[in-house]
Amino acid sequence: MKIIDTHCDALFKMQVAKRDSLYHAPLLNFENAGELDTNFQRLQAGGINVQFFAVFLHPELPSDEKWQHALEQVDLFHTEIIEKTPQMRHIRKWEDIDKLEAGEIGAVLTLEGAEPIGNDLAKLRHLFRLGVLSVGLTWNYANLCADGADDPRGAGLTLFGKEVVSANNHHRVFTDVSHLAEKGFWDVLELADFPIASHSNARELCNHVRNLSDEQALAMFRKNAMVNVVFFPEFINAGGKTATIADLIRHIDHFCSLGGVNHIGFGSDFDGIKIHTDELRNAGDYPNLINELQKHYTENQVEGFAHRNFMNHLPV
């Protein structure tokens, strides 16, 4: 079964390895590096049709280095993933997904937090030209666009943040709500043509600031937006030490109970998490999730979660 996964952090992990290589640490080979949850062999084994690759920056990175670090990750995307792996096809526009041939895996660039662009829309437009198709305004902390989920102030979008959403709308790019403070979430829902939660679960089941309340989830569904469940135990169970596939499916069940059966997908957060759900330790384990879902849902519904729901909600 085809899988579309809307979030992983392989680029950040590859960048750290590249910088460590200056001190004789090995580079990570995208094809088979065991350190990468989303290496090419694991994507193949898991049946991944399209994998989103986030540009993510460490929050303690000095401001004057952020743009260079972002460009370095984009360069790794092209040189280490696209150019060295012929079966990986860069998705530059949404229509490219339908053009994937048998055996090819689509690769989508995303931005997880607008810190690299500062207050410069020209940098955002440059990222659009490089192929970025989804933009999260924040990671967990405040920047010049908005406050993040962990910021105690909890403010909404700034005037510049609203300009970023407008640019996303113009370029048919998703605006990702997964890391926003709640006030920012509601601002995005009002302004964005193409909102998405790339990797978020149900706060009703796990009371974490990174999860969506029922009110937020219902608003997403009314907006005809996708909510992609995340595999990180901390966002699945209170305490976050462990989680099973059954625990993850409880979040899917809950969103479906709110009317979201046609709006649910997967955003694993592989390579961005150090603790994994049992039997979902990397992209190659996706069949374990699909097999368990097939015990609870119809084949048509499972195909929806896996890929068809996303394809029915592309920015048009």
From TrEMBL:
InterPro entries for this protein: Metal_Hydrolase, Pept_M19
Tree of life domain: Bacteria
PROSITE patterns membership: RENAL_DIPEPTIDASE_2
One Pfam family linked to the record: Peptidase_M19
PANTHER family: DIPEPTIDASE, MICROSOMAL DIPEPTIDASE
Name the record gives this protein: Dipeptidase
Species this protein is from: Metaplanococcus flavidus
